[in-house]
Amino acid sequence: METCTNFKVLRVFYWSNNVNKNEELLPYYGKARDELKYNPETGDIFRYIKSRNRYKVVGTINGHGYRQIGMTINDRQKILYVHRIAWFVTYGELPNIIDHIDGNRINNKISNLRPCTHQENQFNRDKSNNNTSGFKGVSWDKRGKKWKSEIRNNGKKMYLGSFNCPKEASEVYEAKAKELHGEFYNGMNFNNAPTKSEV
Fold first, then answer.
1. 3-state DSSP call for residue 131?
2. Residues 20-54: pLDDT tens digits?
3. What is the DSSP string of 137-169?
4. How far is CA 121 from CA 16, 18, 82, 101, in A?
């Protein structure tokens, strides 16, 4: 059983100026702030167990890979994501979208979180589950019988070219992604490149 012996309690200033879709959840996040403790260095959330006089790590990982916690007010429960609780406790606000910088959805250290737009969040995502090339932005063109490189920007798909080798198509994608994505460029194809047997 994990316990917390050295966590940082942070002073919170309530956010009230910007309107966003999470406004109805603010009371639940406020309750989470009051009842739970957040360790910004580990990303863990702790609840005090009175009967054992100790803190215990809480939260379960859902089907999408995010750690979540249920909070109840007046017999009505809401599910809150730990990374959003972490941001609220630290900064007193709730951006519409919070990105995990390293792509690891359970790494909720405050240094690994940043607010972003929907498009920026997509920039930092891994390749889709139905990807067959092993590289993000690269797919097989049945008609042209080559590997096609494409990237999305401002909601539109941009064609980057067709290539004999998926790795070559990926290199073109990565160059354009680095140009367009700025700080949200993650070099995922280089970091997770398939082996020769996988290509």
1. coil
2. 557 889 999 999 999 999 999 999 999 998 888 89
3. TEEEETTTTEEEEEEEETTEEEEEEEESSHHHH
4. 24, 20, 17, 9
4 belongs to a structural domain? no
pTM, two decimal places = 0.64
Query: Residue 47: which of 38, 39, 36 has the closest Cα?
Result: 36
| pLDDT per residue as tens digits for the range 147-164 | 998 888 777 888 888 999
Instruction: Give the total number of structural domains in the chain.
Output: 2
Domain range for residue 153?
128-191
- Return the SS3 of 118: helix
Final residue before a domain boundary, out of 51, 80, 115: 115
C-alpha 161/C-alpha 148 separation (Å) is 6
**Kind and range of the H or E run holding 77:** strand 76-81
Question: What phi, psi does 182 have (nearest 5°)?
Answer: 55, -130
Closest by CA to 127, choosing from 174, 84, 163, 61, is 174
